[in-house]
Specification:
single chain; 7-stranded mixed sheet; 6 helices; 7 strands
């Protein structure tokens, strides 16, 4: 039995490694479609669950962990920017404002399924147009929800909640969820 991380995110891989688990990376090819008929947290849990189920189909005897992270400001979801201009606009909207980072987590093992959503409030300082453009030009924002990696820049003046959640995987909750499943005597990874 193995632990499978259903994500291509190098940040999630690094965070999960920091918990001391050995695992295999097998990214999900699931479409990240939010069901607008569900409350946001439930829709986010469903996206993570869809990813986990898709990968579990390839690993039916293993434990699968999947996650999906979004940035939310003024009720609007910010995904990954399509290009540098989109990254600049996202960062301008986040400048001198509070936004939320939400991560949906799903763990599957055979018939066992557990999902959670963790929310962190991130308060950005006022950013200059020069630092926004310089960071956007680096290309780094293009693979990150909200167009930034909190571990790469000093844009946040405060984070209320899990800092690792803002990176892409809330460690405390993930560790607890993995411990919960390991309480099953059948599960050893």
């Amino acid at each position: 039995m193995k632990l499978i991380l259903a994500s291509r995110s190098p940040r999630r891989k690094q965070l999960l490694s920091s918990l001391g688990y050995e695992f295999i990376v097998d990214p999900s090819a699931s479409n990240e479609i939010f069901d607008k008929n569900l409350p946001l947290d439930e829709a986010l849990e469903q996206v993570a669950l869809d990813k986990a189920e898709e990968v579990a189909g390839r690993h039916p005897e293993d434990v699968v962990l999947a996650a999906d992270t979004i940035v939310l400001i003024d009720g609007k979801i910010l995904g990954k920017p399509e290009d540098t201009d989109a990254a600049i606009e996202m960062l301008k909207s986040l400048s001198d404002h509070m936004h939320q980072v939400k991560t949906g987590i799903a763990i599957i093992y055979k018939d066992y399924k557990q999902t959670k959503v963790v929310t962190s409030d991130v308060h950005f300082r006022k950013l200059s147009i020069e630092e926004i453009e310089q960071y956007a030009a680096s290309g780094s924002p293009l693979d990150k929800a909200g167009g930034y990696g909190i571990q790469e820049v000093d844009f946040a003046k405060r984070v209320d909640g899990s800092f690792s959640n803002v990176i892409g995987l809330p460690l405390h909750i993930t560790a607890r969820m993995l411990q919960d499943i390991q309480n099953d005597p059948e599960v050893m990874f």
